[in-house]
């Protein structure tokens, strides 16, 4: 087992403000950034605030920015850095700080409430649901989401534009709309709810300009842009421009003098 | 005088994992105004870690399955110590609880004819686990979370307030259940963000706080698993049951050290993975105990055929119940046939194509790649036992989930005892959460509707506030809570771990007493805002209480059964079958921190109902039941 001293710069502070503080801390073989934060708590700063739960990349609690990149601390191995490097750990930038590495992520819980829930099909009893594996797989990909909110943090629509937040659900919740829209048995349409139109009109799908930043930071490897947002945009457009109307328009334009 | 915010609710649910959320949904749907309080963010509970699936005898893959077979498997797995009525209700109701999840939007993996697919698991006679790849727990939590949001959307339409009838207090902790006389009157809580105290007044409280794994060094459990509900029940006067039974999951990661203990799902074995020692031998064939001899394959060839043709072959011994596999691994490592980092090898790479591994076991592939830099499609994993689950817990009424002797206090999920006997089968946890979470919510709402509102006294609030603030007033030479926690974990791991001896457990009790004395002086720095050192100092009380229960009960039970293995009493004793060990709080609590807090009481289990006994062959019952039970 090899051990060395690493240099860390960690943001400490609260709603009033704060600053980066320097720490030197021991690192052992095979450790991740969260281990180092825990060692700091146990040996140097017992009140260093950090969220974490499973420490296995499954719960999405320990989100922070490591060297400026949105990451799960439990999935960021120390071996990916050189020993000389000073590693910075800062709170998620798109959300207000509560204390140290803990931010107020209530924005996400508000947005979750704005997406209408799954509408069960009328007249299909529990136990009688039949769906083909290939039909559920698209939505299953999106349900891998661990709600770490790294995509919400990195998305440039809101990252430096607080003013966009009221009108924009963010990649995670636009993906939730896509997930429900692709659910083989969701009966929203029958209940008079057009999820595609809602994505456009209520959740700010139009603000997304598919730069794929969300996909890049997703620790679950979900292809948020390609598999959720772009298809949702295409469907929303199909809805806004009915193909027959489109064809009609085209013919008229051609025949016009 | 301490001034705290007080709110009135009908039902307070402590914990937002599978059991807590299911209880809250039920209570709210029955008309109770329901508050859920949880230590983490909403949707992060430890349930997300469950991988394999939900056991329910839907019979989608093998029509031979039904509740009777599931009941039998559960009783066998628990070595007949299960509270049989719970095992019966669980087996009967599990399918409905799974189907209900579909109506709330869950998307399970499918069979070719479009029904919910079911997979094999240790101890289950038929493919029985509804699953979503190997992230079933996440699907369960998300579905329940989204159901709660849906109920809140309904309330918003009706009352203009999402939280009118169902509110989640996230990142808050309960430190005391409050009572008026014998009856529950509410819960004393603090908010992690601000450190502010508040009181939720309610006639009914459901404890759904999960397990105790954080008292052990090597564990698959998250930081939340500090035995809070167990301790809250004890402090409120409700006894715990069979706390000596702690499940060590056979396959936790052993390398690198920082992830030691993190779970490797049993599905790896259910889908064909095999265990080998350093000599390359599939050693599990040497460890099939007598009670299971007829049910398991005797050769590798037969075991391998079972995956394709389960009706004409017996299952491989890698799929024995977890206690058996964990002990076997422990023995191999002890005999010097372990892997380089002190485990054994679990191999899927030579058993199926890489593509299939990535599809069937995506999170395992991901976990080993990211955390250990191991490609499980190309090489074997190193695994060893890790503290995973506590079968013991709060003693409850099987039907209503009500605790013993404290009207208004209910418990469901891992924090409740009885359901799993001495050992839990994989997949029976998620179904337990749903079946008994629902029952707890149902009965708590019913009780709350007729119980009136017991008063919360200012004196109790003062006492709870003083207790919670004590770590800020520690004198010179205060103890570091992190150091105390590490010493507690080492004590429990080394002295009351997977293999137990009387002398070591007696020593553990002495060390726990010494730790209690030091914990009374635990001190913290900083202020009350989101201060993890303070939170840990408060959690220590709970871990120490629960650890004492485990050590005392384990010392008392002079046999080996399920999740309780004694080197000095290696065999299962039929005379112990009908014996439950109850941990009762010493009342009044002694002022001297060195004095024990727990008194053990032996009780006899209720005789198993004849029609349920009739589901087993006589020859099998003879192996388990005590002499006098057979005559009855």
Model description:
The complex is a heterodimer of chains A (257) and B (632). With 257 residues, chain A is an alpha+beta fold. Chain A folds into 2 domains: 3-103, Roll (Ubiquitin-like (UB roll)); 106-243, Fumarate Reductase Iron-sulfur Protein, Chain B, domain 2 (Orthogonal Bundle), CATH 1.10.1060.10. Chain A has helices at 33-43, 106-114, 133-142, 150-154, 156-159, 171-182, 195-201, 213-217, 224-240, 243-255, and strands spanning 3-14, 17-28, 63-66, 69-72, 86-90, 97-99, 102-103. Chain A has a 5-stranded mixed beta sheet. Chain A has a two-stranded antiparallel ribbon with strand order 6-7. In chain A, strand 1 and strand 2 form a beta hairpin. The longest helix of chain A is centred in the last third of the chain and has 17 residues, at 224-240. Chain A is elongated and about 60 Å long. Chain A starts with a strand and ends with a helix. Chain B is of the alpha/beta class. Chain B has 3 domains: 5-246 and 389-459, FAD/NAD(P)-binding domain (3-Layer(bba) Sandwich); 250-388, Flavocytochrome C3, Chain A, domain 1 (Alpha-Beta Complex); 467-604, Methane Monooxygenase Hydroxylase, Chain G, domain 1 (Up-down Bundle). Chain B contains 18 helices and 20 strands. Chain B has a 5-stranded parallel beta sheet with strand order 7-3-2-11-18, sandwiched between helices. In chain B, helix 1 packs parallel to helix 4. Chain B starts with a strand and ends with a helix. Chains A and B meet through helix 1, helix 2 and helix 3 of A and helix 3, helix 4, helix 10, helix 13 and helix 15 of B.
Features:
heterodimer; A: 257 residues; alpha+beta; Fumarate Reductase Iron-sulfur Protein, Chain B, domain 2; five-stranded mixed beta sheet; two-stranded antiparallel ribbon; B: alpha/beta; FAD/NAD(P)-binding domain; Flavocytochrome C3, Chain A, domain 1; Methane Monooxygenase Hydroxylase, Chain G, domain 1; 3 domains; 20 strands; 15% strand; oxidoreductase (chain A); iron-sulfur (chain A); Succinate dehydrogenase/fumarate reductase iron-sulfur subunit (chain A)
